Every structure is written in structure tokens, then in C-alpha cells.
Amino acid sequence: MRYFITVLMLSLISVFGLVAAEYIGANSVRVSSGDTLDTDLFAGSRHVDVDGYLEGDLFAGAERISVTGEVDDDVVAGARAILISGKVADMVIGFSQYIEIDGEVGGDVLAFGQAVRITGNAHIHGNVFTGAGDFQLDGGKIDGWLRGGGGKMLLNGQIGKKVNLEAGEVVFGEKYQAPQGTKLKLAHPLNPEKAGKIPADVEITIQKKHPFFTTFSFYWSFFALLIAGILLSVLFKNFVRNVISFAGSNFWKNLGFGFLFLIVIPIVIIVLLVLVFTIPVALILLALYLIAIYLSAVISGIFIGHYLLALIREDKTQLSLIWAFIIGLIIIILVARIPFIGFLSKLLVVSFGLGSMLVYTWSLRKAKTTG
User: Fold this and answer.
1) Which positions ≥6 away from 67 have C-beta within 8 Å?
2) Second label for 59, Cα 20 to 30 Å away, from 24, 257, 320, 361?
3) For residues 14 and 301, what is the distance between their CA atoms, to the nearest angstrom?
4) 0.70 exceeded by the pTM?
């Protein structure tokens, strides 16, 4: 199994090299003001700043990502904070604790995070799909539609097309405009005293959700993942201990690399499918990719539980991997069920686990090569 995991990780790493035009891994990556980078940029680091001109796409995983210059294609980013005050010619896909768009976006925006803010300076020429604990359209302009959901949502800007949202609380501002109508799915009716200037054409549906622990799928997925984690912890104990030890010492690096692989590999698979004669390779890669994602959740679960056990146990030498995984799995499942930010937590879990396995496997290969 250890050799299988190694082959799996190295296969993913080798495919990544087919699509990366300009790859940088460092503590800080910057395209300085006045500079031009005439290729795609794949960056995994602590800080990524584009102050100049990037002619291609930006794929980045970091603690903070900032675009004050211009990106001539797409931005696909995962970080603690994503700040866009410059210009992005096409699509923006962001997963972050905090996302702020304060500039111009030529295409669609997919924004998922604890807090998403579109300021009064923002102009998005496409559509917006969001999932956030706190969403603010604070005076900006969206030419397309606005869809998604949030815990608390401020709607105080211009939307060119229809609005369709699911939310816990909605507040309308004086600048809100949606000529094609507004549809809301709410747990409770709007409070006229707190909801602001409610549009006359708003359509509201009140819906109640069943608790997640009453569904069969919850128990099936829980026990399936539990068995996989226990088997991995028992049969490949040394490998798992080495991975979680490595993961703790390279947190942001592993998270950034994991996010990049999570996004890039599906693109490679699509390209291989389009070429037709490489369809068998695409199907094999897809299977490996899905297995890697499943294993990444196990690794992240063990890491979380191991970290918590280390905080409360005096003897930290031989902490139980099984108990660590059980604790970590319960935490992951409960956090994933928090409305509107559950998806972000799942993304972080998969990215961190995937990155930890990939980078650790690569370091083993590099050590053997140099040794």
C-alpha cells in the first residue's frame, strides 16, 4: 500500500508538470509594478502579489493573495485572504476566509469564504455565485445574475439580471437594484424593521431543513471513511506518522500545493479526454485523483485529532492514530455541517491532506535522488 500511495502521488506530480507554464514556490511571490510576466503563473507560497501585468492565468495557494495590477485571464486562488483591487480580464474563482473585490472583473466570479465583500468600486461584467457566512454587496455593480447563499447578506448594489439566494438573514440597502427580480429562500420571514428597503417584487420561500444526523447518507459516509482511516492507521502506521509530522511543519506550503493540485488535475483530465486517443490515460488519472482526495480527508482527520491529543496528553511519544482519526473525523464532519462555510472547511481539509501527501512523497523522491 505504501508503494501504491507513492506511485499515486508521483503520478499526480508528473502530470502537473505538463500544464505548468511558470511555477514558483517561495515565501513570497511578486509580479512588481511595471513588470510583465507573459505566461501563466502557478504559485504556492505565503504571499502572492500581482502589482504588474500577468498575461496568462494566475493559479495560487497562499496565506494572502493580492491583485492590484492586471491579470489578462483567470484567477483561481485559495488563501486566508484574497484581495482584488486591480483588473482581472476573465473569471475569478476564490476560496478564502476573506475575499474582497474592489476592482474590475471581466468574467464570472465564484467566491466561497467566511466573508465575501464586493465594494462600491467593483464592477463585475459576468455573473456571481457565492457561498459565505457574511456576504456584502456594498455598492458594487454586477452585470449578470447573483446566486448562492450566505448566513448574513447585505444587498446594496446593482445586479443586471435575476437574484436567487438562500440566506439566514438579508438586509437591503438604498442602492439595491435587480430589474429581473429577487428570489429568496429563508428559514424565517423577513423582519421589515431590520431588512431595510425591501423590493416590491421580492419572492420569498420559507423552508425548513431536516437535521443532517437523520439522513442515511450521513451515517454511510461516516462509517465508510472511519473504516478507511482505521485500516490506513493500522496497516501503514509508520507512513501515516511520517506524513502528519511533515504536515505540521509545512502547513501553508502543503495547503497551497494541495489547492493547486486540486484545481489543476481536473483541467489535465479534461484536456486528455478532448484529445480522444488519451482517454484511457484520462480515466486512470481520474481514478487516482479520486483516491487521492479520499485519502487526503483521512490524513487531515488524523492530523487534527493528533494535534488535539498532543495538547492534552503529557506523553506525546506514541499517541494513538486510531483515536486521533476518530476525534479528527468527528470534528471535520461537524464543522462541514455549519451553514454556508461548510464547503470552505471541506476544501481546506482536502487541500491540506492532499498537499501534505504530495509534498512529503516528493521530498522522499528528492532525498533518494540526491542521496
Assistant:
1) 49, 50, 58, 75, 83, 84, 85, 86, 88, 103
2) 361
3) 27
4) no
